[in-house]
Amino acid sequence: MDEPKDIKLFGSARSGYATLVHHALRLKEVSYDYVNVDLKNKSEEFLRMNPVHKKVPVLVVDGKPIAESLVILQYVDETWKEHPIMPQDPYLKSKVRFWADFIYQKIVPQTYVIIQSEGEAQKKAVEELFGLLGTLEDGVKRELHVQGSLFINGLKRGLLDIILGGCRNVLKRMEGLHGLKLLDEKQIPLLCSIMDAYAELDFVKETDEMLSQYAKA
């Protein structure tokens, strides 16, 4: 199969999901053009590319659009083989997919509950988030993490590291806006260690800086 030539990522500077795709493409050293979408005034071109959900991110490869961040991340890994972000072993791959889905289906919705609540309701929602993060910590440690390594699969950055990096950005932002403590190193030491190590990677810092410029515009 010929190498894709025209690659565009439609996203938003404030979209954590789009940030994940930026990171995966940069990790794999894929050259691409970025189109920052005005979420309050979406163009007809963009809506044609994602007519079902009408959300970012959308990756367009040689004119063919792919929507939904988790779908895009797996497409990127299958298309560009260098620096794989999924294990080759089918069993380990299934475990990565399971915990990625757990983050998307359990942890991300819980952050919205926290944002939309106040007082005792918010306190209860935060406690429920701690429980979910604890479950994730235990599962990653038990099933995937290489003991003593910076990232989940040793020195190689993988799909879960990318997603956890995105979670760190969101949770840190929530801490600042709502005066909460959501990343507790005593409760989830492994996850905090992985997130902090990921945040120090050059391509992550470069992406965050680039997106911060768009956010200011």
Structural class, by secondary structure, is alpha+beta
Share in β-strands = 5-15%
The side-by-side strand order for the widest beta sheet comes to 2-1-3-4
Chain-averaged pLDDT? 94
- The 3D shape can be described as globular
The value of Rg in angstroms is 17 Å
- What order do the helices and strands follow? EHEHEEHHHHHH
The N- and C-terminal alpha carbons lie at a distance of: 39 Å
Q: How many DSSP H or I helices?
A: 8
Q: How is the biggest beta sheet arranged?
A: 4 strands, mixed
How helix-rich are the residues, as a percent range? 55-70%
Task: Provide the low-confidence segments as ranges.
Answer: none
Q: How many β-strands, per DSSP? A: 4
How would you characterize the overall build of this protein?
This protein is of the alpha+beta class and 217 residues long. It is 58% helix and 8% strand. It is built from 8 helices and 4 strands. It has helices at residues 16-27, 44-49, 69-79, 90-115, 119-143, 159-178, 189-199, 202-216; strands spanning 7-11, 33-36, 58-61, 64-67. It has a 4-stranded mixed beta sheet with strand order 2-1-3-4, with helices on one face. A hairpin with a 2-residue loop joins β3 (58-61) and β4. The protein starts with 6 loop residues before the first strand and ends with a helix.
In short:
The chain contains eight helices and four strands. The chain starts with 6 loop residues before the first strand and ends with a helix.
List keywords for this structure.
alpha+beta, 8 helices, four-stranded mixed beta sheet, single chain, globular, 217 residues
